[in-house]
Amino acid sequence: MKRNETICPACGTLGAKEVLEKESVEVRGEEFVVDGRFWRCPTCSAEFDDSRPEGDPLVAAYRAYREKHGLLQPEEIVAFRKNCGYTQKELAAELGWGEVTLSRYENGALQSKSHEVALRMFMDLQVLRREAQESSRRRMRRLAEDRQKREYSSTLAGVRRDTSRFSSNGDHRLSVGDAGTIELPMAA
Ligand SMILES: [Zn+2]
Q1: CA 40–ligand 1 middle distance (angstroms)
Q2: 135 CA from centroid of ligand 1 (Å)
Q3: Which pLDDT value is given to residue 165?
Q4: 37-73 b/e with 16+ CB inside 10 Å = b?
Q5: How far apart are the first and last CA of the chain?
Q6: Tell me, what CATH number does 55's domain have?
Q7: In terms of residue numbers, what domain contains 130?
Q8: pLDDT digit string (tens) for 71-97?
Q9: Which terminus of the chain, N or C, has fewer Cβ atoms within 10 Å?
């Protein structure tokens, strides 16, 4: 069977043809002209709907509406969720939504404005969270490096002190003053 040919459910003849027709669909009070797909039988003239999602003019109209208003498309929501490693259930719980709601959005239902805002805020928060984690990791690394440097230079100073003590002849001994500070003997 050819892709653009199917069996007519009315008369049973193979040969119903796919028809593309511009359709006007209203979404939240706005008109969108989209490609509508349906089948027409040349034998009995019956017309019937396309069962595929791309054939649904409402699906196309929702896409057009989201694009016009800068809303997330279903595949963007899915990509974000998977990128974060969440299941539908987990992300829905994070957002305080029902699992069914998120599932419907991922499958093409048009999101409410408040849900779009909540989802965008959550996405921004995830980015901030990730940046904070990264900068905290960098800070910890820097602290460890600083400590290592300090330990190294104090070891080095200790080695220098020991060396000078062993090579001196009494006069260069370090003495501790009354205030507990280290006093160096005056140079001759
Ligand atoms: Zn027919």
Answers
A1: 8
A2: 67
A3: 67
A4: bbbebeeeeeeeebeeeebbbbbbbbbbbbeeeebbe
A5: 108
A6: 3.10.20
A7: 71-138
A8: 999 999 999 999 999 999 999 999 999
A9: C
